[in-house]
Amino acid sequence: MSAMHSVGWQSVFNRLICGSTAFVPRMAEIRAVQATNRRRLDDLLQSPIALRT
Predict the structure, then answer these.
(1) First CA to last CA distance, the chain
(2) Which of 36, 43, 45, 51: CA 20 to 30 A from 18?
(3) Closest by alpha carbon to 39, among 27, 48, 51, 31?
(4) What was the pLDDT predicted at 50?
(5) Which domain of life is it from (predicted)?
């Protein structure tokens, strides 16, 4: 009984770790995309050629 209980907790713990490690790169990816989009927007606003076209 106690062995089953510990195995259950281990699977829950592993699932939490796997979920968080899968989530962290996704958050970093989203932040990187937001940063590049912001940079692109700044470049567009600053370049007179982009404003002309």
Answers:
(1) 72
(2) 36
(3) 31
(4) 55
(5) Bacteria
Residue-wise burial string across 15-43, b where 16 or more C-beta atoms lie within 10 A, e elsewhere = eeeeeeeeeeeeeeeeeeeeeeeeeeeee
Residue 13 or residue 34, greater confidence:
34
Could you report the per-residue pLDDT of 31-51, keeping only the tens digit for each? Answer: 999 999 999 988 888 877 655
For residue 30 the two structure tokens come to: 């989203």
Q: What does DSSP assign to residue 1?
A: -
**CA distance linking residue 38 with residue 41, whole number of Å:** 5
- Domain ranges (residues) in the chain: 21-45
